[in-house]
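Summary of Year 1 activities. Much of the first year was spent building the evaluation harness for sequence design. The harness presents a backbone, in tokenized form, and records the residue chosen at every position. We chose the following record to illustrate the format because it has been used consistently in internal testing since the harness was completed.
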């Protein structure tokens, strides 16, 4: 069977809560979800597998149509997030217009939240949700056989008489080491890049699945709370494979990389022994790092750590069920800075219960912890989170995400927690945070010292002008 997996064009994505000047520059990284499925299917030796990442190739729909026609697949799998649902729906309709008999499968985080609504979109034959490697492969062997399909966990579809079938959530893969590495070679892997990494190409790596923490603004715990790590040996083997391909810069894309302290140190020791001059960044929490672990990360090539700080107000942190304190935040940034590892701090403006005074506390905290980069966004309640359910229940907003899932062609704005502020006021406050951070003399000097060529200077000046043009102080 000829299978085509598509990461759709990014032409109709809902406006992000990050400012445009940040969103435009942040880069393009591999769609690991479909690359993991592609690798698993290829390992079975039963299918011809193709991948189109329309985003890294900067495809429009005319270009995508030509590529689909050339491949002429039997099955098309499309991944998507809720923010890009319009592009997913358009890609589904395009696929059916090109080849009406092709079977179209949709997966990704959006399908996880709204399996029935996704299954009822025009042109969708099947939905795969949860971890898709095994479910997708079993689906290929049972297409159009309703009795067999009902026995495969992780599927949703309509029967010929329009009855909705949901087979139930699949069991998570217990041994992640048993899965093949993502099929990066099926994409133009040398073209991926990231704003915060110093070299090209860049790739992302997922070394674990599941998050045990209970932040109520995040939908990860609703999907899978149990932490399942890959072994350090397996992770280092993937890094070696990537360096053999010419990739030396990595983004560790785990929800929380440093949960298992011993495993982190083992990975670092493996990378050091590999001696391939790699650089990488990680994402973690301020309450599960320590000086010894950070020292190992530094020696292994860790260039930056992304910390989800979210707020400078203890009250807001409690409202978010974040489980951290201002003291933990300050301590983590102090140690990380002392070891000369770059820091990125993420903040949200307009969280539940947050007042103007709380936002001012956040701005003050930025000046105290001195991150190398700060990313501010307007707080957005996402489907599958406790906060979103609470907002709908309180009547702060309608169940917008459900309405959008049913009708991707509707005009849609991201919901905000409009308890104290309007959307316009929150956007203005967010931009004020960027202005305060980006015009800080320390940040300006650091950026000037980091410029290596005229192109980098031009990019920095362009981003700064965009930022200033949007901020009125």
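For this record, the design step produced the sequence shown next.
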């Amino acid at each position: 069977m000829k299978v085509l997996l598509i990461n759709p064009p990014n032409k109709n994505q809902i406006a992000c809560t990050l400012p445009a000047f940040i969103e435009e520059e942040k880069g393009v990284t591999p769609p690991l979800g479909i690359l993991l499925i592609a690798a698993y299917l290829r390992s079975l030796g039963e299918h011809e597998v193709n991948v189109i990442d329309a985003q890294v190739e900067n495809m429009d729909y005319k270009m995508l149509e030509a590529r689909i026609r050339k491949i002429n697949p039997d099955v098309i799998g499309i991944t998507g997030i809720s923010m890009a649902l319009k592009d997913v729906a358009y890609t589904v309709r395009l696929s059916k217009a090109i080849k009406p008999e092709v079977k179209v499968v949709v997966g990704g985080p959006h399908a996880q939240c709204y399996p029935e609504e996704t299954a009822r979109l025009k042109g969708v034959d099947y939905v795969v949700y949860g971890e898709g490697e095994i479910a997708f492969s079993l689906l290929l062997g049972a297409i159009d056989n309703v009795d067999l399909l009902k026995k495969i966990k992780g599927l949703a579809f309509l029967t010929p008489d329009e009855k909705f079938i949901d087979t139930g959530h699949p069991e998570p893969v217990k041994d992640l080491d048993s899965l093949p590495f993502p099929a990066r070679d099926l994409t133009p892997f040398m073209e991926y890049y990231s704003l915060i990494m110093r070299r090209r190409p860049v790739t992302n790596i997922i070394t674990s699945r599941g998050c045990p923490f209970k932040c109520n603004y995040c939908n990860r715990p609703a999907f899978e709370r149990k932490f399942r790590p890959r072994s350090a040996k397996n992770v280092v083997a993937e890094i070696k494979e990537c360096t053999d391909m010419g990739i030396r810069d990595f983004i560790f894309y785990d929800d929380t990389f440093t949960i298992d302290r011993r495993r982190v140190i083992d990975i670092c020791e493996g990378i050091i022994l590999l001696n391939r001059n790699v650089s990488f960044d990680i994402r973690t929490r301020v309450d599960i790092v320590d000086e010894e672990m950070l020292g190992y990360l530094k020696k292994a090539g860790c260039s930056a750590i992304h910390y989800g700080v979210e707020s400078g107000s203890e009250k807001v942190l409690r409202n978010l069920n974040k489980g951290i304190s201002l003291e933990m935040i300050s301590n983590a940034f102090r140690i990380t800075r002392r070891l000369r590892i770059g820091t990125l701090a993420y903040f949200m403006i307009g969280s539940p219960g947050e007042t103007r005074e709380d936002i001012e506390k956040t701005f003050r905290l930025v000046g105290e912890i001195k991150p190398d980069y700060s990313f501010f966004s307007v707080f957005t309640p996402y489907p599958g989170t406790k906060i979103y359910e609470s907002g709908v229940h309180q009547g702060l907003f309608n169940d917008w995400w459900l309405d959008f899932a049913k009708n991707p062609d509707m005009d849609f704005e991201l919901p905000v927690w409009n308890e104290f502020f309007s959307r316009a006021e929150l956007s203005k406050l967010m931009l004020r945070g960027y202005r305060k951070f980006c015009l800080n003399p320390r940040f300006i000097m650091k950026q000037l010292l980091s410029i290596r060529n005229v192109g980098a200077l031009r990019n920095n000046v362009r981003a700064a002008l965009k930022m200033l043009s949007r901020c009125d102080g």
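The mean pLDDT is 90. Quantitative recovery figures across the full test set are reported in Table 2.
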